[in-house]
Structure formats: structure tokens, C-alpha cells
Write a structure and sequence with these properties.
Elements lengths: L4 E2 L45 E3 L2 E3 L28 E2 L7 E9 L9 E6 L16 E10 L3 H15 L8 H23 L4 E10 L2 E7 L3 E6 L4 E4 L9 H9 L3 E6 L4 E6 L9 E2 L1 H4 L15 E6 L4 E7 L1 H4 L4 H10 L9 H17 L6 E8 L13
Parallel strand pairs: 3-6
Antiparallel strand pairs: 1-15, 2-3, 4-5, 5-17, 6-7, 7-8, 8-9, 8-14, 9-15, 10-11, 10-16, 12-13, 16-17
Helix pairs in contact: 1-2, 6-7
GO molecular function: metal ion binding; protein serine/threonine phosphatase activity
EC number: 3.1.3.16
Keywords: Hydrolase, Magnesium, Manganese, Membrane, Metal-binding, Protein phosphatase
Length: 392
């Protein structure tokens, strides 16, 4: 399988300790829900508003679902673990996608959930493009915020618009993704400067165009793929952490530095300026703007974009925030997904639901100290898919 994944290398994080470390335990400031981040200048129309389908998961393909409060009280099961909200699952398929499911939880120690997600099962032809042919397209985004919800909210509401409405999409998805991330970074930093906002976010996007899957990553959320009914487990993304050799070299070459905080559990590597335990983010203006002592070349927002053709022996993609991969390896996650469905190996919506809930629960059992979000995208294999990207 590895030969079929273009530009995918084995992530160095698989052999490194889990070092993300907890963020601030204080709830985000009220400015994080300022209407400036949700105004009409960012949302095209009322019909495009994201609707709460889970706590802190936004899904445009569902309607008439109740909104959830900003903070959530944890209820516990008889096993002593927090009770999960019902997962959101697909009720239809699209192109190469047979089913999906998503679940999120604030975790064992957090009083709030800064993880956000958006799912667009069917990406329609934007009104500004006059195209006779439009491929089957689906968009999945996972945004792991820190320092408040402002940045992850902004990405949830805007990043897919930036990419899908780019003139290069869908002919050149990779370039549209790069341009969309760049625009998101620029627009959010402008708002952050106007509103004295210090929030930031990691971003993980899976965009499927016809038979081709594009994966873009900024930060340490991870996308992995299961192949041959779980016999293969491959990390598609590389965790952007300060102790990754490539990230270390880039940071030092551009005038940054790396230091290590040692506690009783593990060693947490951080990058300066910023003092963050990730080396790529969107937002975090105080680490990037020279006015605040930042360096825009150290903590960058440039995504790594990888793409591959979806083959018949590919089972599913699992997207997860670092709270999951702090305590579970890529192989652990794939094994847990299959072990959560002992009576069936058919990739139905119920299979996806059991898998994401099993992974979130297993992360809690292993005492993850972060928010927990898992999204599973199960593949369908047939001959009905005709579109193909003209360029990478």
C-alpha cells in the first residue's frame, strides 16, 4: 500500500513519546464567542449555517437538531467513564464514501471542548462556477483549538468555503487546499489583531474528489488508513511537533528555538516563540506577529498535502485529534475500530458508530487528558466513479 501513497513517509511520531501536553485548564474568555467571528461577512446565507449535531461537531448535512450549550456537564456510566453523546452517522453515501460517523467529548479533565468539526458529504458546484461536469466531492475537517474556541470556530465556518470556492477547485485540489489554508490564516490573523484574540488551532482536512483522496494537515491531529480488513494500519499525516527532526531543522533555520519541560510523566517539547507543543498552527498571533515578539517563519500555517487513489483494499480513514494519539498508536486505533465490531466486518454506518465510540472510550480508559474527537470515513468500491483530477 505504501507504494501507492504519494509522498507519504512513516511518521517519526510513531517512535517518539507522546508529548503534546495539556493546554491551559482555564475556560476560554468571553471574547472567543464574539459575533465578529460569526458575522455575515463569513457566512454566505442563512441556508449555509452549520447546525449542531453533536456537542462541538457541526454538520451541514443535518437539519432540525438542537444546539448544545457552550459547556457540558459530564455524566458517568456504571463503569466509571464519562457517558458519550450519540454519534453522528451518515444516512446516505456519496461516490467512494459508503458511510461515516463522528463522535467528540471534552475528555476526562477538561471543562470544555475546543475541538470542532465540519462534514459536507456532498460538495455542490459553487454558484460562481459555470461547469457542466462536477465530480463526487466530500469534505471532512477536524479543528483542534487551543487558547479558546475562536480559531477552531472560524475554521469550522470558513475553511471549506475557501477551498471549494477557489477557482482552481476541483481541477487542482492540492493548490486549492494550499490557497484556502493561506487565506484562512491571513483572515483569522486580521480578526485576531482587531479583537486582541490569542487563540489558535490545528487543522486536519480530508477532501475526496472522485477516486482521489487529498489529506491536508497543520499540527498534530492525525489521519490514518486501514487496509485489507485491518491487516494494514498506515499514518497518512506527519505529526507537526517540535521534536520531529524535520520540524526541528526548519524551526532552528528560521530563528526559532526548542526547549523541553520535564514532568513526572513525560518530556514536553515546546517551540519558541509561542511556547506551544506543536510546530504548525493557524492563528496564535502572539507567536507570529513581530509586534508581539513573534516570528512568522517559526510557527507556520503551511499544510502538508498528500494524495492517493482509493484502492479496493482500503477500508476506511480515521481522523483523530492528538488527545487520541497521545495514548494510542496508529495500530491501536485501527485494531480498536475492528474490535469494536466483533459480529460484523461490513462497513455500515453502525460499524462506523461503534468504531468511533470504541476509540473515544479506549482513549479515556488510557487516561488521555485532552479533548477527544474521532471521525471515520468508510469506503465503497464500485465502477460508478468517473471523475479524475486534472492535476495534483
Amino acid at each position: 500500500m505504501s507504494a501507492l501513497l504519494k509522498s507519504i513517509r512513516s511518521p517519526s511520531s510513531e517512535t517518539l513519546p507522546n508529548i503534546r501536553g495539556p493546554r491551559s485548564t482555564q475556560p476560554p474568555s468571553p471574547v472567543c464567542i464574539s459575533k465578529n467571528f460569526f458575522g455575515k461577512q463569513f457566512l454566505k446565507s442563512r441556508s449555509e449555517l452549520n447546525i449542531d449535531a453533536l456537542p462541538d461537531i457541526k454538520l451541514r448535512c443535518f437539519r432540525n437538531l438542537d444546539a448544545t450549550p457552550l459547556y457540558h456537564q459530564i455524566t458517568f456510566t456504571e463503569r466509571g467513564l464519562p457517558q458519550l453523546q450519540p454519534s453522528t452517522t451518515s444516512n446516505s453515501s456519496n461516490g467512494k464514501i459508503r458511510a461515516y460517523a463522528a463522535n467528540t467529548h471534552q475528555g476526562l479533565t477538561r471543562l470544555y471542548n475546543e475541538d470542532k468539526a465540519v462534514i459536507k458529504l456532498r460538495v455542490k458546484n459553487p454558484t460562481n462556477q459555470n461547469r457542466a461536469l462536477w465530480p463526487n466531492c466530500s469534505f471532512f475537517g477536524l479543528y483542534d483549538g487551543h487558547g479558546g474556541k475562536a480559531c477552531s470556530n472560524f475554521l469550522r465556518d470558513n475553511l471549506h468555503h475557501y477551498i471549494i470556492n477557489d477557482p482552481l477547485f476541483p481541477d487542482c485540489p492540492k493548490q486549492a487546499i494550499l490557497r484556502g489554508f493561506s487565506r484562512a490564516e491571513s483572515d483569522f490573523l486580521k480578526l485576531a489583531k482587531e479583537n486582541n484574540e490569542r487563540a489558535g488551532s490545528c487543522a486536519l482536512v480530508v477532501l475526496i474528489v472522485g477516486k482521489i483522496c487529498y489529506v491536508a494537515n497543520v499540527g498534530d491531529s492525525r489521519a490514518i488508513i486501514s487496509g485489507s480488513k485491518g491487516q494494514q494500519a498506515i499514518s497518512i499525516t506527519r505529526d507537526h511537533k517540535p521534536n520531529d527532526p524535520e520540524e526541528q531543522a526548519r524551526i532552528k533555520q528560521n530563528g526559532g528555538s526548542i526547549y523541553c519541560n520535564v514532568n513526572s510523566v513525560n518530556s514536553i517539547y515546546r517551540v519558541s516563540p509561542g511556547q506551544l507543543s506543536v510546530s504548525r498552527t493557524i492563528g496564535d498571533i502572539d507567536a507570529k506577529d513581530p509586534i508581539y515578539g513573534g516570528n512568522p517563519d517559526v510557527l507556520i500555517a503551511t499544510p502538508e498535502v498528500k494524495y492517493f487513489k482509493i484502492k479496493k483494499h482500503y477500508d476506511f480513514i480515521m481522523m483523530g485529534c492528538d488527545g487520541i494519539f497521545d495514548v494510542m498508536s496508529t495500530q491501536d486505533v485501527v485494531s480498536t475500530a475492528w474490535n469494536s465490531n466483533p459480529l460484523s466486518n461490513d462497513l455500515t454506518p453502525s460499524f462506523c458508530r461503534n468504531a468511533v465510540e470504541g476509540i473515544v472510550i479506549e482513549s479515556m480508559k488510557r487516561r488521555s487528558s485532552d479533548n477527544l474527537t474521532a471521525i471515520m470515513i468508510a469506503f465503497e468500491h464500485g465502477d460508478q466513479f468517473r471523475s479524475k483530477s486534472k492535476c495534483a
